Amino acid sequence: MSTRLACVVFDADRPRFIADFWAELLGWGVTIDRPEEVDVAAPDPDGAEVALAFLPAVRAKHGKNRIHLDLASRSIDHQRVQVDRALSLGARRVDIGQGAVPWVVLADPEGNEFCVLEPREEYVDTGAVAAIVMDTRDPLRLAEFWAAASGWPVTHGGEQVAGLRSATGLGSWLEFVRTPEVKSGRNLLRLNLASFGEQSVELDRLRAAGATSIGRDGVHPATSLALADPETNEFCLLRPVRDCSTV
Fold it and tell me: Within its chain, how far is the Cα of 62 from the centroid?
């Protein structure tokens, strides 16, 4: 296969503002700064962490996002420092029904939920982002699709949670958590794939795995194909490009 997970895409009312928030919080840098797109990435150009891309929003946020980021911590004290730093940058605490849990649920300045986790052994070497987490009705089925799409093997799977990670053992996890909520409308956070082979061949492979075509990318229509995974989560298949231009 010749595709890889390229970036997490945020639809944002103020792309540069919210990109600056995440860059400051994660200790990353802005790598692309255009009116139609701002990208943020880890400082190590050879690192395994997935970049973040911020685009002008096409609709207002409504309800909880189906994709969110979990941030890693090294200790309980470090978790507390991470939370305080996020709050000082403009985040706020939110209640999504989590109850009494050891992690802290926050929202960025535009309401996108994220978690600051307590220290966990499986996230000790992930970097700033422990996991990219997607809500799903069928964790294992969706994990299998994204394993086929990204090339990351499924490391654990069950009825409630499934996860995959790069075979190198570096960078963030991609995790799928069971939820009874049905997807409604376009996702404000999405995953994008970059293609390094013949795009038509990769498109056929993704369709065989369960993807459906939903049109062409409005930012780079000549190079990007808009698709949806088996639970209708939108994503884009990009040609080999330097940025994370999105659906």
Answer: 18
| Phi (first) and psi of residue 139, to 5 degrees | -55, -45
Sequence-ordered strand ranges (E) for the chain: 3-12, 29-34, 37-41, 51-56, 67-71, 92-93, 104-107, 113-116, 129-136, 154-157, 161-164, 173-178, 189-195, 212-216, 224-228, 234-238
pTM above 0.90, yes or no: yes
Give the tokens for residue 89.
Answer: 């940058």
The Cα–Cα gap between 172 and 72 comes to: 10
Q: Which residue from 160, 164, 156 is spatially nearest to 180, judged by alpha carbons? A: 160
> Could you report the per-residue pLDDT of 62-117, keeping only the tens digit for each?
889 999 999 999 999 999 999 999 999 999 999 999 999 999 999 999 999 999 99
State the DSSP H helix or E strand holding residue 145, giving kind and residue range, or none if neither.
Answer: helix 139-150
